[in-house]
Amino acid sequence: MGPTLNKKNNNNAKTNNKKSNNSSSIEEKNRKKLIEDLAKQRKQEEEEEEEDDDQSYDSEDDDGQEEAADDNVNDKHWKNTNQYSNQDDNADKDGGDQEDEDEDEDDDNDIVKYLNNKRKNSEFDLEQQQTSKNIKQEDDDSENESDQEESNNNNNNSNNNGNDIKSKQNRIPTGARKYMKGEVVAATGIKNPVLRNRVERQSKYKKEAAISAMKAEILIQSESGFIEADENENTYDLKQSDIVKAVDMQSKVKVFDLTMEHGPYSIDFTREGRYLLNAGEKGHVAVIDWQSGKKLMETHLSQPARDACFLHNESMFAVAQKKYTYIYNSQGVQLHQLNSHPDPKYLTFLPYHFLLVSAGNRGSLVYEDISIGSVVARHSFKYPLSAMCQNRQNAVINLGYTNGNVDLWIPKSKEPVVKILAHKTSITAMTTSLSGNYMITAGLDRIVKIFDLRAGQAQYDSMEADPFANKRMKREAEVHQLLEKIPSDMISLNPDLVGTIHSNASTEENKFRREFKKQVDKNRVQIDPSKLKKWDEAKKYRKEKRETEILAPSKTRDALSQNSTEITGDRSSKRTTSSLQALCFHLFSQPPYRTRPHLPSDLSSSSSSNNNNNNNNNNNNSQIEKYPFTTTTANIVKPSVP
Amino acid sequence: MKIKVISRSEEDHTKEVSTDARKLQRNLDPLMHPFERPREYVRALNAVKLDKVFAKPFITSLHGHTDGIFTMIRHPTQVNCFASGSCDGVIKLWNLSTMNERTTIQSHDGFVRGICFTNNGRSIISCGEDQTIKMWNLTLPEYESEQDVASIFKGKSSFTSIDHQLNSTTFATSSVNVEVWDHNRSTPLQSLSWGHASVTKVRFNPIEYHLLSACTSDREIILYDIRESTPAQKLITKMRTNATAWNPREAYMIALANEDENCYQYDIRNLKKAVCVYRDHVGSVLDIDFSPTGTEFVTGSYDKTIRIFPVESYSSREVYFTNRMQRIFSVLYTADSKFIMSGSDDMNIRVWKSKASGALGIKSAREKEKLEYQDKLKEKFKEIPQIKTIAQHRRVPKAIYKKRYLKNVMHNSQQRKIKNEGKTPSKKKSVAEKKKLLQEANVVVEK
């Protein structure tokens, strides 16, 4: 199994390079450099793992790149990619006779290839790969097969047996995976033929929908922006003036300067990114339509403005002032004084729930529904606050404290649903990625850069937020927003909970089952003696283990504590932005206690372009506090309506 | 160094000229659309609530009859035309687009028991208690007062119902026997009988033209093929069947309106077991009519309500009633399946929408799309309790509510009893009991 696996990976390396050749080679090189170190490490690990367990390998995408980078024959491949693609076309033509049945599939594949190439250009692709890799390892296996098939086509191999065709029909193209709504449920084991058919049909529809959504990508004309550094350049050296020089004429015209005199400002954009809200420490508040260069509103408040955020659109915004939070309209008229938000420090707005969230110096986190003007939830926290941000995918509020803790809050739970000890010093800033999978915190201990991954989505969606919306559209959108306001108690760690099957639901059947269970007399149940023996043994073993641990403590504890000891040893080593990488957890895609916290490679590549040297010591100087997840809050399934 | 920034001009993304259609930018990336499922759920909830808000099914009542309406039939070719016959022997033709009556014909002495249009739609045939069948000529397209009797057929006993074959000049009547007639013959072509009971209802299959179902007064449903002189098979039910309706899309499916307050759907290829039992009415079901789409049927009952049942579901989708509506003797779908007519004892014909919250008139493409989307959402989240309770809740008169509750309790206890009996194999039933059970159950007889 071992050697064949390697071969497979090599093949994949070729195909991957072929795919990525259209993307800029410079970017690729940079990325490669960064990945090289990581790759070596990971490869070593993998080899060990392969020896241990044949089937444990990661998604082939990354492997391919890494190995290619390792071999240093990489350049050859991507220079000759044209040849490769030609060969591929020829092979397809040659093999056309065999594959008459799957002609449509092949058309799909062409589109897939095109789209893959296109996707490689986008800066988000790594993140997507990452998530897909983590979530759908199973699918990746099938993809391995599919890639293998591609290579088979190259050799004009006629060994296509029935199984291959079957897997071809069942698979979902790589690009379509992100469009899958929910998971595909296998209909095996369902006895009721009607139900089985329905489940099968649904999964079929899901696949079809995902594929057609992927095909619609071809309609996207806009391309995302990027910065490509040359050989000896570093992107962090770039100045605004350099950017202005390098961009096209249309963009050059749009350059403008804001001279802001009234102290540190907090800013906020509307969801479509068109309007900018500035709130200065000395009470200067202004709203600007930066696209047309118009100033909508400017005013000087008598109190300092600590934070400000737009409400559902640009017509209203909230300002955190010394005593209370205030709401102003776009003319600068004060509409409301929110007495229920005392001494606020940070503000944020959950647009789909119409909740204004404020966290204050007095240790209270207040959720206010601004559509009806009532406080939905009020929680209290103990430590002094130093950062706050919301997760855009599940509306969880993250609070960072001066003691380095980060808490994740939802309205319906009095306790934070997750507690994380992220830094040993105070947290200064924090954000979550657009995918909701990554949180980035920055501590007082080192320089901080906040990588806001939302920037640079080239293709906006008019149905979601349209920067060019006219008055009528805005009005309509507002009405729909209000109509489709999600009840605040539906906020949970998993936003897609509603509509999933609740195993403890009080259906008739379950009720019957429960009653039946009660009736069973425990005294009559005969326990299998062999099982009893096993239990005893297990009990004995646990007892012995406990005793040995007491006798010889702290050597073999869990992996988390191991990490922490490493950190204490490594304290002298530099901690620049590598700390940033290390602090990004898979908060939501991963099980809560990972023995080895995972490193999302996109962040490593994007954030650490300036510290190649530090990549080696990407130890995790962070630890997840072993906080027992309040399962009662995280598992509430029943959605309720106000 | 290579830098590219996103640069959009307002003109490119909106209208270049004022006459242009506005460009809609879409990005289907799921990251751009957070909270998809919760938002869909809220939309579904709103849609269900809106359905309730807009649920105004009653359109109008057509008055003019001076006695209870006993039978109704729709025109084979014209969508807006239908005929009704009342207990005082009057037939009226109605225009649904203007909600007016077109023609009145004093046809019989006593009840008009049945009416039907001929296959070309130019004449109407009625039968009554006065032992005659009359055929009236009607000129198209507006039937004015030209009401010449084209022909009169004399029978030996009073007729109970009539139905016309779709593709020929043959029609069938029921009295003591089932009789098959032709327009040009004064005597029946065929007289079919099986047993001694009188026949109450005949109904031709709309697809298999020769297939005829007949309900008898001694609890039988007999199937005839009129090409043969002998009947095909019969089904004996526990209680009398008042009316039958053939599924217009599936020739082998037949729905029965039964005296035992239930409706049944049978597959005539296997009459031993009902495909589905619909148990929502609390009074005997008097009439039944399939929607021309074949997906739903409407029933009128002695409990003064109309119910619409989707074929695939066990429970009714809608229940219609008004304060003044009395026992319903006939129900009818229009040919476009958008409206339902009910003829009742109170001398009125009421017109209802088949979809209670549906809007009348032409819908724009956007509107249609939106409604389809809402329907899909409702379907998707239908099992969620909040949505289910709102969607299923119907206000009904207190008496009906109570009766239905009682009926449910009784049904459940019976089911439980059957289940429990199954659990105790030691208790063997006596032969007499078995016989009794056999007598009560449906019996299929083939000839």
Describe the structure.
The complex is a heterodimer of chains A (642) and B (447). Chain A is of the alpha+beta class and 642 residues long. Chain A is 38% helix and 16% strand. Chain A has a four-stranded antiparallel sheet, with no helix packed on it. A four-stranded antiparallel sheet of chain A has the order 6-7-8-9, with no helix packed on it. The model of chain A is unreliable at 1-27, 48-108, 119-166, 449-454 and 554-642 (pLDDT under 50). With 447 residues, chain B is α+β, with helices and mostly antiparallel strands. Chain B folds into two domains: 58-358, Methylamine Dehydrogenase, Chain H (7 Propeller), CATH 2.130.10.10; 398-441. Chain B has helices at 10-13, 36-53, 365-380, 385-392, 398-423, 431-440; strands spanning 2-4, 58-63, 69-74, 81-86, 90-95, 100-106, 112-117, 123-128, 132-137, 149-154, 161-164, 170-174, 178-182, 190-192, 199-204, 211-216, 220-225, 231-236, 241-246, 253-258, 263-267, 276-278, 285-290, 296-301, 306-310, 318-320, 328-333, 339-344, 348-353, 443-446. In chain B, strands 15-16-17-18-30 form a five-stranded antiparallel sheet, with no helix packed on it. In chain B, α2 (36-53) packs parallel to α4. Chains A and B meet through β1 and α11 of A and β1 and α2 of B. β1 of chain A pairs antiparallel with β1 (2-4) of chain B.
Quick one: CATH superfamily of the domain at 252-380 in chain A? YVTN repeat-like/Quinoprotein amine dehydrogenase
Assigned CATH architecture of the largest domain in chain B = 7 Propeller
Write out the CATH superfamily name of the largest domain in chain B. Answer: YVTN repeat-like/Quinoprotein amine dehydrogenase
Q: Could you estimate the helical fraction of the residues of chain A in percent? A: 25-40%
Strand portion of chain B = 35-45%
Number of helices of chain A: 19
- Terminal CA distance of chain B reads 93 Å
CATH topology of the largest domain in chain B: Methylamine Dehydrogenase, Chain H
Main sheet properties of chain B: 5 strands, antiparallel
Number of domains of chain B: 2
- What is the CATH T-level topology of the domain at 252-380 in chain A? Methylamine Dehydrogenase, Chain H
What global shape of chain A is seen?
A: globular
Q: Which regions of chain A contain 5 or more consecutive residues with pLDDT less than 50?
A: 1-27, 48-108, 119-166, 449-454, 554-642
Number of strands of chain B: 30
Question: What does the average pLDDT of chain A come to?
Answer: 66
Number of helices of chain B: 6
Strand numbers in spatial order across the main sheet of chain A = 2-3-4-5
WD repeats (chain B): 62-104, 105-138, 278-319, 321-353
Keywords (chain B): Nucleus, Repeat, Ribonucleoprotein, WD repeat
Pfam families (chain B): Sof1, WD40
Protein name (chain B): DDB1- and CUL4-associated factor 13
